[in-house]
Every structure is written in C-alpha cells, then in structure tokens.
Amino acid sequence: MQVRMKLDTCGVKLKLAHWHQFTQQERQTLVEMPTTTAQENQAYQQYLQKLVTNYTGKPASELPIDPNPACMDATIIPENVQTKAQEFGVSLMPEQWEALTPTQRFALIKLTRPSHENRNFLPALKEFKLI
C-alpha cells in the first residue's frame, strides 16, 4: 500500500506485471524513496518510469494526480469508508480516523473502491485497531 499511495501521488499507473519484473532491491527502493515534495515526486516518477521502460521497452501510463487526496484529511471520514465499515457493524468515530496515519486512511479508502474486491477491508479494520 505504501507504493500504491506513492503511485497516486506521482501519477503513475503501475501494472502488477511490471511489479513482478522488478528485483527485490528495486521494489524496496520504491518503498523507501520519499514522496513528500514536488522534487521527490518527480524523482520517484522518473526512477519508476526508467524501471518500467527497462523491463518493457515503454513507460507506464500516467494518471491524473489528486491535489487534495482524502487520505490526507484527518477531519473527514469519506462516506464510502463509513458505509463499508457499517456493513461490518462498525461505526468509525472522527477521533479514530484522525488517529490513523495517511497510509492507513489511504488503504481503507482504496479497499472501498467499487473496482476492488474489498475482502481485505475487515482485516484492515482489525489491523488498524478500529474494531
């Protein structure tokens, strides 16, 4: 999920097939590289695109970058997250949402997307000690 969040931050659509081609060291570098500034985001995108191009011969697709991602707002629980939690009999409180890290909030948001299987939402709630 750390890399997924960085991909959204940098606007790169990385396919699972690409990820599987990377070495363990390359994957670890993608986990560890910072993406907190515009310069870091650009360096991350360039490194990632170089990797993909080296393995596939062409760069990965680019995605629009959300300037205000919901995971960065600790004050508002997205409706889709609250709705999904309620399916499991859980009502998230604002102070619980605020206590989560941006990466944890990102994971919960991603796990509620319609295109996602959502089977890991309940385990995530447990892992983040929300139930």
In words, what does this structure look like?
The chain is mainly alpha-helical. It folds into two domains: 2-62, no CATH class; 70-127, no CATH class. 56% of the residues lie in helices and 3% in strands. The protein is built from eight helices and two strands, in the order H-E-H-H-H-E-H-H-H-H. The protein has a two-stranded antiparallel sheet. Helix 1 (2-10) crosses helix 4 (38-56). It is elongated and about 50 Å long.
The tally of strands reads 2
Run of helices and strands: HEHHHEHHHH
Structural class of the helices, strands and pairings? mainly alpha
Strand content: under 5%
How many helices in DSSP terms?
A: 8
Outline type: elongated
Classify the helix fraction into a percent range: 55-70%
> How big is the Rg?
16 Å
Low-confidence stretches at least 5 residues in length (pLDDT < 50)?
Answer: none
The total number of structural domains is: 2
Strand order of the largest sheet: 1-2
Major pleated sheet? 2 strands, antiparallel
How confident overall, as mean pLDDT?
93
User: Distance between termini?
Assistant: 21 Å
Topology:
Blueprint: H1 2-10, E1 12-13, H2 16-21, H3 24-32, H4 38-56, E2 61-62, H5 79-87, H6 94-99, H7 102-110, H8 121-127
Pfam family, one: Nitr_red_assoc
Protein name: Nitrate reductase associated protein
InterPro entries: NarM
